[in-house]
Amino acid sequence: MKQFFTFVKKEFYHVFRDKKTLLMLFGLPISMIILFGFALTNEIKNAKIVIVDYSKDVVTQQIISKIEASKYFDVERSLYSHEQLEAAFKEGKIKMAIVFPEKFNENLLHLNKAQVQVIADATDINTATTLSNYVSAIIGDYQIQLLKNKNVPMRIVPELRMLYNPQLKGEYTFIPGMMAMIMMLVCVMMTSISIVKEKELGTMEILLVSPFKPFMVILSKFVPYLIISLINVTSILLLSWLFLDLPVKGSILLFYAESLLFILTSLSLGLLISVNSESQQTAMFISLMATMLPTMLLSGFMFPIENMPLPLQTVSNLVPSKWFYIIVRSIMIKGSGFSAVWKETLILAGITFFLLIVSLKKFKIRLA
Amino acid sequence: MQTPVIKTEKLTKRFGDFIAAKELSFEVYPGEIFGFLGANGAGKTTAMRMLCGLSKPSSGTATIAGFDVYRSPNEIKKNIGYMSQKFSLHEDLTVMENIRFYGGIYGLSNEQLKTKSAELVELLGLQNETKKLVSELPLGWKQKLAFSVAVIHQPKIVFLDEPTGGVDPVTRRQFWDLIYDASDKGIAVFVTTHYMDEAEYCNRVSIMVDGNIEALDTPVNLKKQFSVNSMEEVFYQLARGAKRKAD
Q: Are residues A156 and A27 in the same domain?
């Protein structure tokens, strides 16, 4: 056991000696979250919008001139039909449309309530959210002005419609996806490189000639990256909670347990790559190919798997990130418990077990 | 006569049809410096790997430090040291960290580690370099340090695989002083080399050709047997007949 600690200590020396890599290991998740986080709240200027005013009364004129005065919008007034609006959206000519129905002022005066329709192109979630928030704020301002002059409470209700992506699942998808990607990158690449490095430098031979068991060599290689990954998970969770207002809805314990499993999957994949490559460059290249591409393309994080052709859907089942992504999404966003993700967990555990067995076997064969 | 620390009989390793090492039989005694010569591809590394417990023999027997290679490879590992041509230290660790790491995985206690590392640092004259990274040391010092680390747990045998590749003659001479020191302490030294002057320093030399040991004796006797003046010529006469191409 003491030998094991000696070994783990040495692995930590390796990690801490290499300042650049260390910075990457801890900086990567933080910079990604901040980058994406700010991208989500970025302000937009001069977005092209169309205002369709069927009412043409005092109130709508006042609201429209307020909107026109704002620096956020580049307003075109016209009487587009519904079809024309649709076409303009599809061609990407406009980002948003505001439609005032007929008798807007009349409704406001007699019913104390008038509706205005705000339609946004939600294929670009960030822009859509920001723009509709601006419009709501401007209308809200105008309401307060109205209320000052009259005693009767009057309400203008903006009716928001997000085209093409009603749930606006933006940060929802990127946090779990990012998590899978960062863990894969750190664990797979770092483990495979650190094992191959020992092979390349000839120190692996010395370790194998020593009474230290080969299995223990691998185990102690795992420890530092496992700890680093757990720290990364924590920092991602904290950042997304504090800055993006996205707390984990489900059990934190379950979340960590699942993360631990996925870290183990990644470490085993790293080991498998290291037994099959002879140089650090090869290990790095294979790691990148085996982690980045499938995680981005086939995990469902960027492109919905349901829309893929059947062969690709089948292949996506072999990608561990896909399962982890589903699990994290369920726990974090839906607040599901273990009963909802046990199937995915089982599959992930199966993949891990398979990777571990195959790579340990290969590692042993190399010895014989 | 002492009991040998290495004793092999008809030790053979096959890879499919290819016989990498064929019926090797020899003995090495405590404190002996045993030169293991052969052209590239002659089977030296294969033989050495079997003796270190890294590779299982196909047939034959071998006892290392009194333990059977088939039955107790782990006991063997505790009693041998190993240094390869790549000098085998961790470059991004300091001198002291390397010493403590290798001492540590051989199960030395903290006290042993303390005395041993102090001793070693003094012997090599590295007092001012203990906190330096190994990568900052000159190659000669790295190799001396690697050797000292390989015998830190006082093994019965130390295996050296072309330990002096790429260093200048002065450093090589100093390296051999360390080997003599180890031999004086009763450690058997099993060394492969391509330098024939180093072969002259050995107590006994074996020369492998195409997987067989073609000659095994003291350098003096070998030269007499082949009626030549240097080990270089002995080696040349034997290796010339090799059929296998170096890889």
A: no
B229 near A CB under 8 A: no
Mean pLDDT of A294-313: 80
Rounded Cα–Cα distance for residues A273 and A355 (Å): 10
Closest by Cα among A3, A205, A212, A366 to B160 = A205
H or E, element range at B235: helix B231-239
In terms of domains, do A196 and A280 share one?
yes
Separation between Cα atoms, residue A328 and residue A319, nearest integer Å: 15
Number of domains in chain A: 2
> A13 contacts in B (CB within 8 Å)?
92-93, 97
* Nearest Cα residue to B87 out of B185, B170, B5, B166: B166
Q: CB–CB of B97 and A10 under 8 A? A: yes
Q: Give yes or no: residues A203 and A326 share one domain.
A: yes
Q: What is the pLDDT of residues B132-162, one digit of tens each?
A: 998 898 888 888 899 999 999 899 999 998 8
- The residue among A161, A158, A142 whose CA lies nearest residue A150 is A142
Which position has the higher pLDDT, A163 or A178? A178
Q: What is the pLDDT of residues A109-162, one digit of tens each?
A: 788 788 888 888 777 676 777 788 888 888 888 887 777 766 656 666 666 665
**Domains of chain B and CATH, by start:** 6-239 (3.40.50.300)
C-alpha gyration radius of chain A = 28
Cα gap B158→A70, rounded to integer Å: 82
What is the mean pLDDT of the segment spanning A296-311?
79
Measure A40 CA to nearest chain B CA, in Å: 41
Chain A positions touching B106 (Cβ under 8 A) are 210-211
Give yes or no: residues A232 and A146 share one domain.
no
Contact assessment for residue B120 and residue B148, using Cβ atoms and an 8 Å cutoff: yes
Cα distance between residue B88 and residue B105, in whole Å: 15
Q: Could you list the residue range(s) of the whole structural domain that residue A127 is in?
A: 47-163
A159 and A175 share one domain: no
Q: Are residues A123 and A218 in the same domain?
A: no
Question: Sheet containing B18-28: which strands, arranged edge to edge?
Answer: B18-28, B6-15, B59-64, B67-68
Chain A touched by B104 (CB under 8 Å): yes
Which residues on B lie below 8 Å from A206 (Cβ)? 82-84, 88, 102, 150
Residue where one domain finishes, among candidates A135, A163, A191: A163
HSE-up of A132 (CA within 13 Å, CB side)? 23
Per-residue pLDDT band for A165 (boundaries 50, 70, 90) equals: very low
Strands B33-38 and B204-209: parallel
Amino acid letter for position B19:
I
Tens of pLDDT, residue by residue over B49-72, are: 889 888 889 999 999 999 998 888
Q: From the centroid of its chain, how far is CA B198?
A: 13
pLDDT of residue A41: 46
Residue-level pLDDT at A42: 47
Q: Does residue A185 have a pLDDT over 90? A: no
- Model confidence band, residue A201 (pLDDT cutoffs 50, 70, 90): confident
Answer yes or no: do A346 and A275 share one domain: yes
Regarding whether A109 and A91 lie in a shared domain, the answer is yes
pLDDT reported for residue A127: 73
A74: CATH: 3.40.1710.10
Q: Which of A142, A163, A184 lies at the terminal end of a domain, its last residue? A: A163
- A15: closest chain B residue by CA: B92
